[in-house]
Amino acid sequence: STLDCDFKEAASKLTNIFQARQYPLRLIDQAKKKVQKVDRNKLMTPSSKVQETRILGSLAHSVLSSKIKKAIFNLWPMLQGIPGCEKPPLIGLRRGKSLKDILVHTDIMKLRTPTNLPHGTHPCGHCSVCKFVEKDKVLQFPGSQFTLKAFATCQTRHTVYFIRCTCKKIFFLHRF
User: Fold this and answer.
1) What is the pLDDT of residues 154-169, one digit of tens each?
2) 176 touches 64 (CB < 8 A)
3) I need a labelling partner for 51 at 20 to 30 A (CA). Which of 26, 66, 104, 152 fits?
4) CA distance 122 to 155
5) Residue 1 pLDDT > 60, yes or no?
6) Which residues are bridge partners to 151 per DSSP?
7) Which element (helix H / strand E) includes 144?
């Protein structure tokens, strides 16, 4: 059949490519035998995977990352009634800054912070958290508000994190 001919031709080309890259011939033959057992018609039909809707999150790995994850999972039952929040989020950890990241930069790469910057929260423009930072001068809670008296970005240290759900009804404050 045409599928078998196409397979043999493609397998031959791939075998040559892998041999040119010095893969062991035994390994190539094992992979070929494994693939020959698979039904070609089944591979050509689209799979019907059920797409799971779950919130994905990413945190920089640090001393506090486990505490942040624990706080999110402890408070998650309050959000389960909101559509899209039925299941807890999947939170991944990425590599945080290492000594190399901190020490290797030259004076050219240092960011100079002007003294006349506007008060409030602003994205730093250099990280993955920026897309979640809202430009605000005043933080409003149910029944109270707080006016920010300094310039702050997602890179500002010794801050209180104010996390607000997209429904703007649920708030979470935490000092790090």
Assistant:
1) 777 777 666 666 666 6
2) yes
3) 66
4) 10
5) no
6) 120
7) strand 144-147
Tell me whether strands 56-60 and 90-94 are parallel, antiparallel or unpaired: parallel
pLDDT category of residue 109 using cuts at 50, 70 and 90: very low
Residue type, 103: L
Mapping DSSP onto H, E and C, the string for 60-114 reads ECCCCHHHHHHHHHHHHHHCCCCCCCCCCCEEEEECCCCHHHHHCCCHHHCCCCC
The token pair that represents 66 in the structure block: 């486990």
Q: CA separation (Å) from 50 to 46, 75, 83?
A: 12, 28, 18
The predicted-structure confidence for 75-101, as pLDDT tens digits, reads as follows 888 888 888 788 888 888 888 777 777
* CA–CA dist 89, 163 (Å, integer): 15
Average confidence score pLDDT of the chain: 78
Token pair listed for 30? 């094992």
Instruction: Classify 142 in phi/psi space as left (phi over 0), alpha (psi -120 to 50) or beta.
Output: beta
